[in-house]
Here is the input.
Amino acid sequence: MTKAESMTISTDQFPALLEDLRATFAPGLTRDLAWRDAQLDAVHRLLSENEDAIGHALAADLGKPPQEVLLGELALLYSSIKHARKRLKSWARPRRVSTPLLGQPARIWVQPEPLGVVLILGAWNYPFQLIFGPLIPTLAAGNCALLKPSEIAPSSSALMTELIPKYLDQRAIRVVEGAVDETTELLKLRFDHIIYTGGAAVGKIVMRAASEHLTPVTLELGGKSPCVIDRDADLKHAARRLVWGKCINSGQSCIAPDYVLVAPDQREELVAAIDAELQKMYGDDRLGSADYANIVNHRHFRRVRQYLDSGKVAIGGKVDETNNRIEPTVLVDVAPDAPVMQEEIFGPVLPILTVADLDAAMAFILERDKPLAAYLFTKNKDSKKRFVETVSSGNMCINDVIMFMAVHELPFGGVGMSGMGQYHGKIGFDRLSHLKAVMSRGRVPEPPIRFAPYSQLKMKLLRWFG
Here is the structure.
């Protein structure tokens, strides 16, 4: 299928497209491990053979510098593919379970089996990672997939629509473009699983639509991820990692530090350390730095710019309306109920609020929705332990930010309003599989204990076996 044919799929053709994918799945094509491995290899080739085109698309959509294309999009996908291919056979193998005495003689195991057809609704902030990242466990688990990239990153969406038919098996993997109308029509159909990355408002719409068919969902929704600076933290070290995590992709990351909590007497030193790190990374002309991405479009630019009035600008504050760029900005004297504290910022604005100590910081976090990520900088082992045990978040990192994404054995996902379901690595394979419980009984011996007529002796024996 050509790019033009793919782009001209109308919404009234969506049901037939889904039936085509079901017709592929039914005979078992995607259950074959060799097919799965070949498709994962094809994803790798799609990305590696088109790195320049991908870089140009991401520059057009988000102004991403080349190193962020590699670091934030491609490197993670390459390592995810390698990780899945190396372990595919072991993940798909039946998993033996011990047989209790009452169940003897028998063999018991868990049989992973593919779900069917998975709908993947991508996001615009990491357009390639958030389509192909979920696709990797979807294919590894033996499913068909229908992909819908975000229309807010049009160059990336168009490139994926062009490349996917050239590399992947079109009998099992299809891609459609579109916006709200197309997504609405897709959500009317019965898929076997839906993966959505984006905001909570749309996440509720996806979940509501999925409930009509009892379709399970994986929702990666983000939220206001806090960063706590403990009293004994190394402020220079914290500032360097904090600046990187907040400024990569111009703050348009669902796990970017959203706000900072620090003791009042440490605030000025932290602000100075952040300013020094910004100078090292982006120089004097931070707004015009070639190493700094754009805000995705003018609507989001206006949304983020309004947050600059939520406090006193301590660093930054300059904007370039023509190119949708906002300088890395630190706000102080921010009230807890200020507009910048009401929703995920998703931009290069960092509010710093003061709290008395770690206990006050944790209480502040616990009063709000559970975030997708939570960060703590500290040298104190007791502080680490209490933070991990007290603060509920989808993911957590101590003395750094974001880097848990590089560990494939760690599940990635939200909790509460920051999402549900996890993927990455083996847990992604399991999430996109049905783990079927199987018991194969022998014919003899046949203990009469479970059959009528019942007796006191059988009751005693049942209690003993239990």
Remarks:
- The longest strand covers residues 106-114.
- The chain has a mean pLDDT of 95.
